[in-house]
Amino acid sequence: MGEKILLVEDDRSISEMVKSQFEKEGFTVVPAFDGEEALRVFVQESFDLILLDLMLPNLNGMDFLKVVREKSLIPILIMSAKDGDVDKALGLGFGADDYIAKPFSMIELVARVRAAIRRATYYSSADKEKNNIMAIGDLKIDLDNFFVQKKEKDLKLTSKEFHILKLFITNPKRVFTKAQIYAAIWNDDYYGDENVINVHMRRLREKIEDDPSSPVYIKTLWGIGYKLGEF
């Protein structure tokens, strides 16, 4: 059986179009048409990825996303026509992994979903092979269990924030361009859309830095990229 997707979209014509295409590609698709229904289904069944529209009745997509992230690191791909909502979903601690703007190409959507599931599978299997707890400054990072502490206080990082931090922690001397970060974390081609990197980096810094406007853990090299600070 193929990968299983929870499709949360209140527009039934869009839902049917997406469902039909993914089933042709070998996926199992479970549709939900509002946030409350989606939450009930999510609790009852297991999925490999969630495709989520943000403009939903009963329980909106942002609230649904927040509840899911308290329970799971499942990949979540946002489908939205509103850039402001996307920025919030990616950046304001809600923890979406990626987004695609409406109207979208079905070919691109399928490719994004495959890439997101592939990344999640890779990170899960790779981390199980290691048993590393690393420390830098006031941070302690458990690479096995997606666990980060600062001054003995637990930090709630999203999956993407954790993997960005891990990328720098495990490559302490290396400078990464935005394209290299995108390729490493999203495992996909970079098309110059800086917003995704900027939002995730900003939110990560707000969680790990004492002063996000003057970061010490992940330093900006203007015009080049980023590197881990020296301690």
Annotation keywords:
DNA-binding; alpha/beta; 231 residues; five-stranded parallel beta sheet; two-component regulatory system; globular
Cα Rg: 18 Å
Oligomer: single chain
Taken in chain order, the helices and strands follow as EHEHEHEHEHEEEEHEHHEE
Could you tell me how far the N terminus lies from the C terminus, measured between alpha carbons in angstroms?
A: 48 Å
Silhouette: globular
Number of strands: 12
Strand content: 15-25%
Strand order of the largest sheet: 2-1-3-4-5
The proportion of residues forming helix, as a percent range, comes to: 40-55%
Number of helices: 8
Please state the structural category. Answer: alpha/beta
What is the averaged pLDDT score? 85
Largest sheet: 5 strands, parallel
Q: List low-pLDDT spans.
A: none
Modified residues (4-aspartylphosphate): 53
Keywords: Cytoplasm, DNA-binding, Phosphoprotein, Transcription, Transcription regulation, Two-component regulatory system
Subcellular location: Cytoplasm
Protein name: Response regulator transcription factor
Walkthrough of the structure:
This protein has 231 residues and is of the alpha/beta class. Helices cover 44% and strands 21% of the residues. The protein has helices spanning 12-24, 35-44, 61-71, 83-91, 106-128, 159-169, 178-186, 194-208; strands spanning 4-8, 28-32, 49-53, 76-80, 98-101, 133-136, 139-142, 147-150, 153-155, 175-176, 218-221, 225-228. It has a five-stranded parallel β-sheet, sandwiched between helices. The protein has a four-stranded antiparallel β-sheet with strand order 6-7-8-9, covered by helices on one side. A hairpin with a 2-residue loop joins strand 6 and strand 7. The longest helix has 23 residues, at 106-128. The chain is globular, with a radius of gyration of 18 Å. Its main location: cytoplasm. The modification 4-aspartylphosphate is found at residue 53. It is found in: Cytoplasm. Residues 131-230 form the OmpR/PhoB-type domain. InterPro entries: CheY-like_superfamily, OmpR/PhoB-type_DNA-bd, Sig_transdc_resp-reg_C-effctor, Sig_transdc_resp-reg_receiver, WalR-like, WH-like_DNA-bd_sf.
